[in-house]
Amino acid sequence: MTPTPFSGDACCAKVHRSGVPMKKVFALALVAFALYGTPAQKRSFSLPALDGRMVDLTHYRGQVVVLSFGATWCPPCREELPVLQKVADQYTGRPVAFFWISIDDPEISNDQLRQFVSRLGVRLPVLRDPEARILQGFKTEGVPALLLLDRNGDPIGAPHVGFADPESYVNELTKMLDALLKP
Question: Higher-confidence residue: 2 or 166?
């Protein structure tokens, strides 16, 4: 993980539902990418929303896209989401799209996810990626993980993993967003 102004953040390691530590799952994914194709960040991707429709991020070209990956079982994710919602509220009406991407297992229902974000006061669109395939494509372990895409849909660096200080998080995220929104 690259040091960032967010360094020292808490994160949750993920264990695949098979019981295999995610480090091993990620290692296998990296081998597969090396042998069979390009990493996910070089391709467009679509994920299901809680209402059942597919959300294709290529439809957000021209906007900065903020993707926060997390899970209901992750304490730092529960702390990050309300802070992310506050940042999203600051950018209402600007060309920025915010999404929370749940990596929870499919056993967690869409209704449970709706209740989870509602209890936290979060109104961001929720997408599902139970296999964490997007994070795997970025060679990233742990959640919460934050990924920014520029107006062309290209990632701005590697995903940032962890959350500790809400004030630093807001300051750094707004600095990055403001820089990406400059003409």
Answer: 166
